[in-house]
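Design a sequence for this backbone.
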């Protein structure tokens, strides 16, 4: 995304406590701003000097920085990442933030105009990763019970074939055969 593609829109200048003026968009004339509010992720555009060009409400809410004070310095205080340094480096920087929930924040330099800050909710992705990890743990526990322990019984029998352990070895083989049959028949059809 190139910031030069964003058209200049009418602005009004308002005062700020530090004596600096800030630019505010005229709401009824800002069709691009209305479109930005519909994005499914947070977006903030900062100029090269760190001042705010525009942002949507998701970025305000998810980053927890009020629109009135959102600039490069406020972003750096909240995250420890200085957008002007990211612009100077020319390298995209991504990091995860846990508050108010799992967020992935990407600071993307767009020289010489400024930086784009993208904020995405990754809480669903992390929840799915936790579910997958739980499934894998259960699956490997089942494999351990179904294969590793029976193989150990079979290995002990083969190392020292004793008539009294033949029944255990046969049971171990049957258990592995049962587990394999269950795994292979529970698979969805190919295609």
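Sequence:
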């Amino acid at each position: 995304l190139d910031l030069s593609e964003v058209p200049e829109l009418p602005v009004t200048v308002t005062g700020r406590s530090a004596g600096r003026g800030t630019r505010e968009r005229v709401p009824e004339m800002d069709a691009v701003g209305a479109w930005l509010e519909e994005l499914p992720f947070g977006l903030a555009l900062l100029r090269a000097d760190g001042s705010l060009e525009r942002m949507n409400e998701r970025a305000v809410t998810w980053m927890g920085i009020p629109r009135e004070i959102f600039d490069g310095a406020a972003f750096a205080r909240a995250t420890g990442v200085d957008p002007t340094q990211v612009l100077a480096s020319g390298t995209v920087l991504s990091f995860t933030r846990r508050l108010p929930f799992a967020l992935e924040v990407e600071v993307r330099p767009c020289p010489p105009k400024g930086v784009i800050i993208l904020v995405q909710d990754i809480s669903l992705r992390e929840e799915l990763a936790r579910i997958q990890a739980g499934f894998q743990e259960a699956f490997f526990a089942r494999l351990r019970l179904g294969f590793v322990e029976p193989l150990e019984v079979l290995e002990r029998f083969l190392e020292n074939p004793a008539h009294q352990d033949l029944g255990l070895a046969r049971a171990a083989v049957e258990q592995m055969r049962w587990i394999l049959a269950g795994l292979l028949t529970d698979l969805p059809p190919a295609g």
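Residues 6-22 have pLDDT under 50 and may be disordered.
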